[in-house]
Structures are given as structure tokens and as C-alpha cells.
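Quick question about two entries, pasted in order.
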Amino acid sequence: MTSLLEKIRRWTRTAPKEILEQQLTTSVPRQQKPSNRYPDWPQLLKHEWSRWQDAVQAATGGPRILIATGVGGHLPVVTLDSLLAVALTLRGAEVHLLLCDQTLPACEQLTFHKVSNPAAFAAQGISEKTCRSCFNGGSSVYHALGVPFHLYGEFITPEIKQGVTELAAEIPLAEIAGYQLDGLRIGEHALAGALRFFARGTLENEPLAEPVLRHYFKAALLTTAVARRCLRQYHFACATFHHGIYVPQGLVGEVARQEGVRVANWQVAYRKKSFIFSHHDTYHHTMLTEPVSTWENISWTPHLETETMDYLKSRWQGTRDWIWFHETPQEDLEAIIREVGVDLSRPCIGLLTNVMWDAQLHYPANAFPNMKEWIIQTIQYFARRPELQLVIRIHPAELRGTVKSRQLMADEIRQIFPELPPNVFVIPPESQISTYVMMAQCNAVIIYGTKTGVELTSMGVPVIVGGEAWIRNKGLTLDARSIDEYFKILDQLPFSQPLEPAIIERGRKYAYHFFFRRMIPVASIEPTEEAKSYRIQLSGLDDLLPGKDPGLDTICNGILHGSDFVYPAELYTVGSV
């Protein structure tokens, strides 16, 4: 095993001169025209194509930016990445694109529900047909732009591929999740990718778990080799890409940070036409540690208050967001009480879950090892507190999310508690009950990682945090850092009063910062009828020039210069000062 690791280290850092020369002269094959769902840049810029080509030429030699999501079949990603490529080029950056060319045996493009034959995937990896379709989607768009364009295969030699294949087959299964190569957390991202594929919070009792995890581990190793050699060869100032976890993006981030290349991750935000960007790491991590000084001194005005609360109210129906989970949410309190069976004359404590598989990363501040253990111990605690009622709202995204969960929290609870304690009530994910209406009746709400904590503090509801929720560390919630501390907080229930007015105002400031300043609007993005889907709408290149779109300027300045990814929304609010 040791000699094999040394081979992989050597071949991911260096390459014979003749291989490097071959890579430098590799031409990207012409691809078929993209489907009408993908951005057609020659058509978008049909009257300015020569001007665009001049801009590409003029940017040669500028700061090198790598757009490295790598997954061509992810339509929303290809759409925004290509828009960034154009906008950054117009600002003088030499933009390079990196795309997987059917090199990886597994990636974040796949889920158990999307593959036609999970057993075949477990045995052989991604099918050629699936890979080809994915590759053609992205490569046709990127090739048309005419900016430098690299393929994974350029950086993988037969020796690298053989060494990675041997390691992925030989490593003991129990060692994969914690596996690191030169300090890179390869196993963590491989495991997160496999959990996402299965849409489960654990691989226990999953018959195909081992071969699928080994595919993701092999893909993680290959991505590491590609990223390391690409970054060392072209000396990029910044690498920007979607999400920042899973395979391949998580490994690109690991390598970039180690190589001293700035990282800018992005994700589709909640509000329509907006995106959240973060420096250095995925927003799952950075939002936990963002300094409160970034938002606590916002000059708070009645207009900002109204805008914040109007938007938070709209989230009850999701009318201003990319996605929502209820077509007709049940907001009638009497009907909710009848469905749940709760008695509002006694203190109610709410509990909000997450989707079990989502973003399964290591968070050192978590009081519990995982969400399932948190819920089990919490139910056991409330069984000893009959004077309180616990209302568990299971996240609707388990069934209504983009990747439907195959490990349902209600089933996990039922296995441990065939009969629930009489003071514990579960609202299943399929229920149309409005989470907001139910939680507003609670003395306090306990959360693990849900973003709803941001909204609840704005409503004056005390929030207890047992996991990695973004509302942690903001001076707004009771944050448990150990199991003992968590139960000491629960011992204080019920609380004697709701949040103080000063805390509520602070919560609303953070809500405004979170939903309006960290979620950056892009004017040239137009939502389509599909959830989280959008297209580019331009009148010409001038729409993407500096000074035309404050949101796009915020994003590009952050990528090029490292400035904060904070959109000064308060400057564009009617009536604000």
C-alpha cells in the first residue's frame, strides 16, 4: 500500500515533459449544438460575436480564473458558470474552464433514483451513455465560448489511472471515510457523494454500499490528481465552482486550498434570481463562522424592517423563492391542532429536522454525532418531561426535494419508538401543515441544521441549536456545544417569555443580511417554470459590463479581488438611508 501511495503522490505532482507538451497542444473536439435548454452563446451574442472574440483575445494574459465545477450535465450550473466566464472575461480575466470528459466512475450528477439500473452502476460505474450526455451538455456550451477549455483526461495518465484503481480496490472499506492523502480529506467527500447518491444519512443496510462508495472514492482520487496537476500547470489566481462538496467539486476545493489558490464556491440561493457565494470553502461551513460585524451594524430603518418581514411572510407560501414545498399549505390553526393532536393549553416545544443525507460533512461544533442520535436522545428526554409537549416537524424535502430521501426520519423514529411517548407528536413530511404556523405556537423550537432558525428568531421564538445551523454563533440562539450542555438548556424549558425586542431586532437584521445581502441577485438570470431552473436573458454584452449590474459586480469583484460576497441591498431599497 505504501509504495502505491507514493506512486500516486508522484504522478499527481509531476509529469514527464512529453506528456505536458502533449497536453498543451491538445485541442478540444467540436461538440454538437447544445439543446435549447442550454445557453446558446453564439445566438445570445449573434450581433456582437466579433466583439466577444476581441474581448477574449484582450483578456489573454490577465488574471487566470479557473471555473471548475466539472459536471456538464448540470444545466443550472453550466448556465451560471458560462455567464461568469463571459462577465469575468469582460473584466480582463483569462478564464479557463475545466470539464470531466467521461473520466470519473461516479459523480454528483448521479442519484439512486436517476440511474436506470443501480446494480449495474455498482458493478461498472457510470454508463457510457450517461457520461456522454452529461459531457455533451457542458462541452458544447463551453467550446462555443472560445475561452481556454480543459478536460479531465488531459491530466490523467495510464499510470495514474492504474494506481488509483488499485488503491480504490485494495483499501479496507472501514478506512475510506476517514482517508486523507497529504492532508486532503478525500474520504469525507467520497462518503458525502455516496450518501447523496443513495439519499441516505448512513450506508448501513444498503446492499450496494461498498461498490458504490469505492466508485466515489476512486473518482475522488482521480479528481485530486486532475486538480493538482491543472492548478500547478496553469497557476490560477482563483478557482470558482458550484457547491464545494461531494465529487468532484469538494476535491477541487481541497487541492486548491492546499496549493494556495483562492476558492470561491457558489450555490443557488432561496430567493429567485439570486445566488450565494462564499470564499475559501462551501457555504455550509463559512456561514457558521462569518463575523457578526458583517451585519450587526446595518443602519436599521422601517423600510428594511418592512422589506424583511414581507419577504419572510412570503416564505410561508414560497412565492418569491426558487422552490417551495407546499402548493396549498394548511395555515388554519384549528385544523392544524386537529391533525397534530396537540393541546395548546400546555407548553409546546417544536423540533425541526433536516434531510438526513444532505451535506454530510464534519462539523466540530456539533453536540451530537449525527441528526438521528440527536432526535432519539431528545425524544427520550421529553418522555421524562410529561408536562411538556414535543412537536417534531419532519422536513418536507424528504419527499419533495430535488433528491428524494430513501432514509425517512419517521421510519427511523418508529424503529426506536414503536409507540411514541404520549407527549410527543410527529408531523410527517407529506403533511401540508404550515411549519411556520405550528412553530409560532411553540414556547421554543429546537433545530439541528435547518435555516428556519433564521426566520424563527425574527418571529420572536427562542431557538435552541444542537447541530450546524447557520444561526449558531450570531448572539441570537442557545447554542449547545456538547450533549451535557444541550440537556442543561432543555432543563430550562419552558421559557418564561419570548425573545426580548432587542434580540428580535438583531434577528431581523441577520435575516435581512442572510436573505438580501448574502443572496446576490443577478439581473441577467431569468427563472423558468421549472424549480431552480433559469436561463440567461441579455440585450447584449453591455449588460454584463462593470457598473451595469451591482449583483454581478459583487460576484466578479469577489472572484477577482477577494472582496466580500456581500451585496449592499440596503443601498437599493426604496426609502433606505
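Here is the second entry:
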Amino acid sequence: MDWLERAPIILRLIPAIIAIALIAYAFRAPGAIVLFIIGLAFLAAVISLNRVNTADITAKIRLPLKPGPGDRRTAEELGENPKVFQIIYSDPIVGSKIEEFLLSRSTSRPSNRYAILHEFVSGSKTTYLIINGEDQDIESEIIESAIASFLEGVSIRPVKSPNPAGIIPSRSNKIGHDKDRVFIGYRLDTPRLEPVYLYYRDFEGHIGIFGSTGSGKSTTLRVLASRLLNQYNAGILVFDWTGEHKILASRGFKVIDVSTGELPADILSCNGEDRRDYAFEVLTRALDLTEPQAYLLSRVMPNARSLSELYGMVLELPEDSRWDREVKRALQRKLGMLVLNEGRRIFRDCPGDLAKDSASGIVLDLSNIMSLHVRRLYVIMMLSIIFTEAYRRYSSQGENIPLMFVFMDEVQNISMASDILAVILSEARKYGVHIIYATQSPSVMDSRLLLNTNTKIVHSLKSNKDKKLILETMGMDADWFSRLDKLPTGTVVLQSISQPQPILVEIHADTPSGD
């Protein structure tokens, strides 16, 4: 009788009254029968008046979604425009405490509707809290604050699109495969080997792969890229800094030598007038322009339709003073990397529809570009083009947009453009672009990149600075500090949205039996 535990003290005395009556009756005390009947009548009246039924209330707030694409809650069941929160916790006791709290709220506020939804997808569970009814905005703030404040180990965050309720279709429906999980290896910290998977929401939150040279991070990146190509109907683009990912050609990828100009990256040719400000910002940061140089660039930028035109316009700027001449020549040298020598081929045009072209998987081999600075500029320009094109599709088509997965190895090589990459990571996911990057030096990266990376795959790290940073961002205890540099090649610590507690995993390229 759980309802008695939540009832006022006077109601909790009812069982005691009945017990005293039975004892009195046993000793033939006068009035015992009357006292017993009064107790039972009082108990029945309380139950009737308060309509307290534990099973009904529990069913009211706990609505588990069964595994299966057809089991979806309708708007009629949960009400219109509910407030939805995702609740993240690992301790089952915490889950029962949340239910007890909501049961209490539901009895005291019968006009409100509370629901806990457990969405099961390929063995992974996501828990949602849905609130509807009178003053739901205020009620939502109260409950959110109470859960976050009084329960340890709980993270609660608002969800704009309550996908688990079936009110708004989930973007994962666009994945063209009946399984939404990607096998990556086997768990090593359990008595038997258990297969470990990454789910779509893990990729949606971006993935960071960290590890020193020789730890196996590039192999992990290839495993993810090749398995995504086999399972998802999506564009997949791999930036190959050193040429070591060309072996993906044997797994169905098309390898393009960027130095030939087959897939150019002229950011001005791809951006209309409505996106000129963004192109200006990218060029300013990528070329590391000073304020005077940026000012000169802004004077000619509005009329340029390509990088080569922009360079020609800069050449024609008047030199009214020595200062003008020095600033102009410096800007000219920096722009020259984009339109002269190697840049003439690499930045000559717009690459076209990358989402469509990369549907069969593309590896962009950067290793034959002699200038390291030109390599960096190409990656920055191409990323910016991908981002702006995804934004355009989202603006015109809404959520009905193609997915694209972008893989970047040795991402520390473009740390000069960390601001641009941080913006892309923070916004790209809602436009259907998901980034998977690998680096041997997480400590040289902008901290915003780590904050916007929800799935972390950590190989062996040798630098104490790198280890300390990773431990802090993953919330791991100090015992791991002495272990991270001793992980065998191919062994990782994994933390993701679907696996919030770090686990030890051996990366495996082959599909597990029966999968």
C-alpha cells in the first residue's frame, strides 16, 4: 500500500486503529466491534474520496515504449504541446525516486498530466519526462529544479522536439537501414565479451577520437566510416591528411586526389550574396588577416563572385600611401595562396552537391598538396561550404534533409581555425551534418570543441596535460590518470550519449556473430 506512505499522518494511523480494534475484540473489550467498523468505514471513505489507486497512477505516469517502429504514442494520449525533458541517470534507484516524486505531484494536482517514457532502440534506453496541464510552464520549472537539486547523479534537459512521443517524427527515420546502431567492438570490463554499439544519437552529438601516435585512433576512424557506409543511406566524407585512409577504397569509398582539382573549394563561388558575410568571416579567420587587411578585403568582397576575381580586385586597389601599399601587398600575398600555384586548381570552383556526391563515400586525399598551409585552407573552406549548403537545405526543406557524416583525422592541424570549427560543431547537427574527428593532441584544441563533442573515444594518451583534460571533460576519477597511457593499441575508453558511464572497449572491425 504505497499510497499510505505518501499520505498525511492522520491517514497513516488508520491501520493502527484497525489493529487496536482487533486486539480489543480479542480481549472482549466493550466497543471493539464498533471501533473496528468505524476504522474500516473511514478507510473506505478515504480511498473513495481521494480516488487513490497505486496501479492506476503508476500506469498514468509510466508509459514504456516497446521496441518496434510501429509503437508510437499519439498526441491525444499525452495532450497537445507538452513540456518534454530528457532525464539521464544510471542508478535504477534514482529512477524509482523520480517516479515516487511524480506520483506525489499527480495526486496533489489531478488536473495535470505527467508521463515517463522509456524509448528502447536496439537495446539502448532513453528516458523522457512529459508534463502537461494547468500552468505547465511553472510546473515544469518546479519539477526540473526539484529533480536536478535533490537527486544526485541526474541530468535533466529540455527537449524541443518530443520525438519519443511520436508527436514529431524523429530524424533517425531517414536512416535507410533497419538497424540504427554501429558495432565498434567488445566490452572488456565485464565477465564475458559483450558487443558495443554506437547509436544514431551518438553520432548526432558528434564524436571525438583521441590518442597518441600508434594508439590506433586512425583505425577506429576507418572502422566507423566503413560501417556507416554499409549501414546508412547518408553522405560520408573523409578528410585524409596523410594519405593513410586511401585503403578505404577497398571498402567501397571513392578516393579523390585533392591536388588535381577534381573537387575544388571556392567558398565565394558557392555562396550567394545572402552568405557573403559568412564567407568574409571565414576568409578573415582562415587567412589570419589583421584589421587593416580585413578592412581592405571588405571593400572589394561584395562585388567578387570567385576567389580569383577577389584577388584581381585587390590588385587594382589604389595605393594612396605607403601604409596602403604595405597592407595591400600583405593581403595580396595571403590571397595568393588560394589562387596561385597549387591554389589555382584547388580553389578554382564550387564542388557541387557534396551531400549527393558523397552518398557512396568519398576520401579526400590531401597528402599530395605540398603546402601544409594550403591543406589547412582547403579543409577550412570545404567544411564551411558543407555547413552553408546544409544550412540552405534546412532553411528550404526543414528537417527533410539528407544526412552527412564528415570524418576529420589529425584535426589539430587546423587549430588556427578553431573558432570556425567550434561554430560548425555547435550548429551543424540540426542541419543534418555530424562530425567525427580524431586528434593526438586534445589539449591544443579549442575547449569549445570538446564541450560540443558528446561521444568520446579515448585511446592511449601519453601527455599528462592531455590525460588531465580528457579526464575532466569525461568526469572520470583520478585512478584513470595512470591507466590512460597504458591502454593497449586498439583498446579505448568510451563515453557516449547512450553510454554515459565510461567503459573499456576493444575496437573490432569485423561484425559480431549474429549481428
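Reply: The longest strand covers residues 113-121. Residues 268-342 form one domain. Hope that helps.
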